[in-house]
Amino acid sequence: MIGVLLIHGFTGGPHELAPLIERLKETTDWLIEVPTLPGHGLDLDLLPYTHEEWIKTVETAYQKLNQEVDRLYIVGFSMGGMLAGYLAGKYGADKLVMLSPSRKYLNLIKLTKEVTQLVKDRVVGELEENFTYKHYHHKQGKIPLKAYLEFVKCVKVTEPYLKEIKNPTLVLQGMEDGLVPYQTTHALDKEIPIDIDVIYYLDSKHMICLGDDQEVVVGSVLDYLLKAPHERKEKEANTT
Predict the structure, then answer these.
(1) Is 181 a member of any domain?
(2) Domain total of the chain
(3) Which residues does UniProt mark as catalytic (predicted)?
């Protein structure tokens, strides 16, 4: 039996990975585990929680699922990508997928561009159609400074375990990511001691599973997980 542990990002929830979760359930009989990090989800309550509690949550989910399956795959988005790498490096995994992993913190230039677009859309009455707004507006005023500091601590704690990763690893990154620089992937390629597989999406932003490229992104992840363990893909650049 195969199990897949999926981990969402900072201030997010399982909804960030919904298309991938649905495809996995439709096309496989694998055990799927998608924990919600403390304080996260659609109703944010981040203030009481620390990065230690986020790490403990994914460790508990990993240990439970690992006892029930013969092979374990880990998929993480954004900060969840770093948590996934931490689990793979510390405990091991059969395959690892990192989606827009937050190895670096913020690309302020592109973030400013997205905020500027929000303002323009509000002026012309198109705010509800803005992709960024749809997926971030519920967070307005609900992310205390302490939570950001816990995020930074989480990245710092998980980063050293990247060099312990030994399993096949796929990284998917949008080159229009407004929150994490796409150059992050270059750093990962140096830190992870094996040859990782990388796919860049020229038009994708941070929410890589929910954007215009979601079908090809989900398909790429599924193809990677379905491959026999001994098969590896060459590094490639997606230019669509």
Answers:
(1) yes
(2) 1
(3) 78, 177, 206
Token reading at 187:
């750093």
Which residue in this structure is represented by tokens 């689990």? 87
Mean pLDDT score across all residues of the chain:
84
Residues 6+ apart with CB under 8 A from 203: 174, 175, 176, 211, 212, 213, 240
Active-site annotation holder among 40, 51, 206, 213: 206
- Rounded to whole angstroms, the Cα distance separating 198 from 169 reads 9
d(CA 143, CA 136): 11
- The residue annotated as part of the active site, out of 8, 40, 51, 78, is 78
* Residue 45 three-state SS: coil
DSSP letter assigned to residue 201: E
User: Which residues share a beta bridge with 57?
Assistant: none
The pLDDT tens digits for 195-212 are 999 999 888 888 889 888
Q: What backbone torsions phi and psi does residue 104 show, to the nearest 5 degrees?
A: -105, 165
**Per-residue pLDDT reduced to its tens digit, 47-89:** 999 999 999 999 999 999 999 999 999 999 999 999 999 999 9
Cβ–Cβ contacts within 10 Å for residue 66, how many?
A: 18
The domain in which residue 198 lies consists of 2-226
CATH classification at residue 12: 3.40.50.1820
CA distance 7 to 75: 6
Q: Is-catalytic flag, 230? A: no
What letter does residue 36 receive in the DSSP assignment?
P
Catalytic (active site) residue 138: no
* 238 token code pair: 């997606």
